[in-house]
Amino acid sequence: MLSETHISPAATVSPGQRNGENRLFPVFLKAESLRFLIVGGGKVGLEKLGALLANAPRAQVKLVAPHILPEIYAYANASHRLTLIERAFETHDLDDIDILILATEDHRLNQQIHALAKARGILTNVADTPELCDFYLSSIVQKGQLKIAISTNGLSPTIAKRLREWFTEVIPDNIDSLLYRLHAIRDQLKGDFAFKVQQLNALTAVFTPPYPSADGQKKAAQIAPHAQQSPKSQLKITGIYRWIALLAALGLMGAGYGLISRLLAMPWHDWLAQLPDLLGKNFIWFLVGGFLAKYIDGTLGLGYGTIGTTYLLSFGIPPAQISKTIHISEIFTSGLSGWMHWHYRNVNKKLFRALVWPGLIGGIGGAILITHLQHGSLHIVRPLIALYTFFLGANILLKGLRFRRKRQRKMKRVGLLGMIGGFLDAVAGGGWGTLVTSTLIASGRNPKYVVGSVNLARFYVALAGSATFLVLLGLSQWQVLLGLLIGGALASPLAARTTRSLPTRQLLVILGILVMLLSVWIMYKTWWIH
After folding, report:
1. Are the C-beta atoms of residues 175 and 143 closer than 8 Å to each other?
2. End-to-end alpha-carbon separation of the chain, Å?
3. Which residues does 332 contact at the CB level (< 8 Å), separation at least 6?
4. Helix count and strand count (H, E) for the chain
5. For 431, how many CA atoms within 13 A lie in the half-sphere containing its CB?
6. What distance lies between CA 137 and its chain's CA centroid?
7. Cβ neighbours of residue 49 closer than 8 Å, sequence gap 6 or more
8. Is residue 318 helix, strand or coil?
9. CB-based contact 78:86 (threshold 8 Å)
10. Cβ(125)–Cβ(133) under 8 Å?
């Protein structure tokens, strides 16, 4: 199995190909013990020879042709097991040959040589003539000791090539180390063959995710062409991005130190006695809201800002305070999530940079706007935000119902999307992930890099919005923030543990309906009663 043979448009299709059956039996040959003959010294012969020597460099090969390309002579200089004979084919060339590859452009000559080889029982591959082939040459993926052969039954060499490129991209280069370790473990295992297989299956189960549904397989097929990312596109967090993250960490450490110092300055019994008054009567509900929002977000991958904003609006908290609280709490969650995506190379630097700076501008602008609008305009701003969260809830509901939109063209104005997303996220306290992520994935981008890049950009957008809110509003409503943080911390491990066992579709439907109902209730309370 070497490289998928090329087939002309006029090539004959066998009955097995027409009815969808692939009756080929794949084998791997020890080419060192076989003798190969290639007839043809042109481009096709060069391709066949290159594929053969690339996979079996110690194979004994004889090539016969009236004219031989200089590139083929270069192979002969590098391999003493390659014999070149520059003359026309003669019958005795088939003596002591195990496998024949016909790569001439003379179809009549190919048929004559094929008939001679068939009479001698020699397996033959004829370029561009599948009906004369005893075997096809496969498209090969090789990473160290791992070798994968791909064949489309001679129907589409292009598909075989694309699959080879995809496997080459997704299989790590250090797969050899894993193979050798598993081989060493296998040698140490005791018991019969079935027991060894059972133990090795248990050891390698971590590499196998749950099998996708039919819908999941269709989605995977749709995104496969976009899955390739070159190493140059992967982000290295250096320069200004690293300095921003470092300053944010120092600022958070300073704020934490100031809060702890203030608490330690009071006697513990006085502090304990004043704790219920400090936290307020609604603290437990803020904790519950943080738990629910983070649990759903950790389980489904969306909804933290939308749920948190809708939930806190029902307590009559000003929208600017809600957005500030959500943004500060998301510094921690999105920072950790973004770092993990960067660590696992899920971040596309071009997409990240296209989102982050416009997102910063939109976030700062939205924070300034909502801060000024909240004074005397709450009866207008709050229902508008509730209307926005209503549409976000409808979006979540449609996801749960598996509503299918038409596939859009790849979006080019990513910066504008980032600015709108940052602005609406600051004004409404949520929607960055729902708006930006959904739009980019719907436009045909690879979800893996979309989620990673959007998550990392979210950290900087939340950081800029939080800094703006703190400058304009100060650290009021800290009880809400503390409740969200504690509730989220309690929910995170539970969400991670139960993610695989939950009915995602049903949860999306319930979540969308709840967000929509809460939004309608807020609009009713504000507009109708007002």
Report:
1. yes
2. 77
3. 485
4. 21, 7
5. 33
6. 31
7. 38, 61, 63, 72, 75, 82
8. coil
9. no
10. yes
Structural contact between residues 485 and 256, judged by C-beta atoms closer than 8 angstroms: no
Q: How far does Cα 139 stand from its chain's mean position?
A: 25
Task: Give the C-alpha separation, 297 to 295, whole Å.
Answer: 5
Tokens of 408: 């859009």
pLDDT of residue 220: 42
Average pLDDT in the chain: 74
Model pLDDT for residues 443-471, shown as the tens digit of each residue: 667 666 777 788 788 888 888 888 887 78
Confidence check: pLDDT of 72 > 90: yes
Do 3 and 29 meet the contact criterion of CB atoms below 8 Å apart? Answer: no
Rg of the chain (C-alpha set)? 32
**Domains of the chain, CATH where assigned:** 15-150 (3.40.50.720), 239-528 (no CATH)
Tokens representing 514 are 């709840």
Cα 225 to Cα 313: distance, rounded to the nearest angstrom: 43
Give the H or E element holding residue 39. strand 35-39
Helices 504-523, 283-300: crossing angle, 10 deg rounding: 140
Least confidently predicted of 123-132, 212-221, 425-434: 212-221
109 and 115 Cβ atoms separated by less than 8 Å: no
CB 146 within 8 A of CB 168: no
How far is 409 from 210, CA to CA, in rounded Å? 31
Q: Name 100's bridge partners.
A: 37, 124
- The C-alpha atoms of residue 333 and residue 84 are separated, in whole angstroms, by 65
CB under 8 Å to 93, separation ≥6 — which residues?
A: 37, 39, 62, 64, 85
Q: Distance (Å, rounded) from C-alpha 287 to C-alpha 481?
A: 9
Query: Contact 428/367 with Cβ under 8 angstroms?
Result: no
| pTM for the whole structure | 0.45
Q: What is the dihedral of CA 491, 347, 421, 251, to 10 degrees?
A: 60
Distance set, CA 303 to CA 131, 250, 411 (Å): 57, 29, 23
Which H or E run contains 458?
A: helix 447-473
